[in-house]
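Support request from a user on the community tier.

User writes: "When I paste my structure tokens into the form, the page sometimes reloads and wipes my input. The last time it worked, I copied everything first. Here is what I submitted, just in case something in the input itself triggers the reload:"
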């Protein structure tokens, strides 16, 4: 990928507000054991031969037992969701026809990362060669949401305004309690495995302007720290190719409804941050040390925990932080017709309650896989 920063800025100048693109990552599973199986290339080749729509929408990720589907650029959230629902149905039909199940949790709770084969592409060969154990250890699955934002400076300032929101979005999306065959005691083991290990990851600094961000990318390039801008893995970042603000903080979701609701809320957060920027609403660039406290609380306790209200400097239940997000985004949600339906208990909460009641981790994961099959596989085709 090019690191032509001038061209990237031009891409934001011609971007369209509130276009939406969705990316969902699934694990490829043996239907008998629910272990990971390295069959991405098989699914890719089968899609290429039988379903050109699906073939255009799937991508490989770090390990061969993972597959990503992409909606492409939707004109708005509703269009992106319709596209993604169609692609989901096609993928689940293809996988079922080839004797595979698909999982959608932030980690595979049982698999041995040491046994996973990395995908053979130039990009991921570079990642594994550069990061070694850090990359090999990262068997994780997530949901990414792209929202079009016009103007490079505006996109950077939207990213800045979203920094305090990220821990709440993580708490809401937490869906990975198990890792390495163990109950981790966390709500988002994916975040601990990926975000806390990869370089240039997690909640970024506030940059303020495109020039400041471009200087940072230029420094990394000149010092041979990166060769692709996507090697900056921040939990929110401007995406050079698409002219979008990309939110990357969320675990993959066990059910299609939860994934759709998160996509809706994230779209509203990006749009509201842009509206606030346009209207000159006050905004403080909070220090990373405070945001990190909330990030850890989201990792450890998710929606069962408490967040720090960084305006009042006092604790509140995570549910209250989510309600503040809903209140904050109410104006733009009304404008855009966005009404996310949030689950009473998220994936991690359902898992934790089962684990705490003595249900074996294997059974907890099997239940999640069943939820995934029953919701994602039953999507109605786009019309």
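"...and here is what came back when it finally went through:"
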């Amino acid at each position: 990928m090019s690191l032509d920063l001038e061209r990237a800025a031009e891409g934001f100048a011609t971007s369209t507000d509130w276009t939406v693109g969705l990316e969902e990552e699934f694990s490829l599973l043996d239907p008998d054991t629910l272990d990971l199986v390295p069959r991405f290339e098989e699914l890719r080749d089968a899609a290429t031969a039988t379903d050109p729509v699906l073939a255009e929408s799937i991508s490989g990720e770090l390990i061969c037992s993972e597959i990503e589907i992409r909606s492409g650029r939707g004109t708005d959230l509703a269009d992106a969701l319709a596209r993604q629902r169609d692609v989901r149905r096609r993928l689940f039909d293809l996988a079922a026809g080839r004797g595979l199940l698909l999982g959608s949790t932030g980690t595979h709770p049982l698999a041995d990362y040491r046994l996973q084969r990395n995908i053979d592409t130039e990009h991921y060969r570079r990642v594994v060669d550069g990061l070694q154990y850090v990359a090999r250890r990262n068997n994780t699955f997530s949901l990414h949401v792209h929202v079009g934002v016009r103007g490079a400076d505006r996109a950077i300032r939207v990213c800045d305004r979203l920094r305090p929101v990220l821990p709440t979005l993580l708490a809401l999306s937490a869906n990975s309690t198990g890792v390495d065959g163990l109950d981790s005691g966390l709500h988002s083991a994916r975040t601990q495995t990926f975000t806390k290990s990869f370089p240039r990851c997690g909640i970024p600094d506030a940059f303020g302007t495109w020039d400041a961000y471009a200087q940072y990318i230029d420094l990394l390039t000149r010092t041979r720290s990166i060769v692709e801008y996507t090697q900056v893995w921040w939990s929110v970042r401007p995406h050079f190719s698409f002219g979008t603000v990309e939110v990357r903080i969320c675990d993959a979701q066990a059910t299609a409804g939860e994934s759709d609701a998160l996509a809706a809320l994230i779209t509203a957060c990006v749009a509201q941050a842009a509206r606030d920027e346009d209207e000159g609403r006050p905004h403080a660039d909070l220090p990373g040390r405070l945001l990190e406290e909330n990030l850890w609380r989201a990792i450890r306790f998710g929606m069962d925990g408490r967040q720090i209200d960084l305006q009042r400097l006092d604790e509140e239940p995570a549910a209250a932080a989510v309600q503040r997000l809903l209140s904050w985004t109410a104006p733009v949600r009304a404008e855009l017709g966005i009404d996310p339906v949030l689950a009473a208990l998220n994936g991690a909460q359902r898992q934790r309650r089962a684990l705490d009641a003595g249900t074996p981790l294997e059974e907890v994961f099997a239940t999640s896989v069943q939820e995934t099959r029953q919701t994602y596989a039953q999507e109605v085709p786009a019309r």
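Agent notes: The reload is a front-end session timeout and is unrelated to the input. The chain is about 45% helix and 15% strand. The longest strand covers residues 20-29. Escalated to web team.
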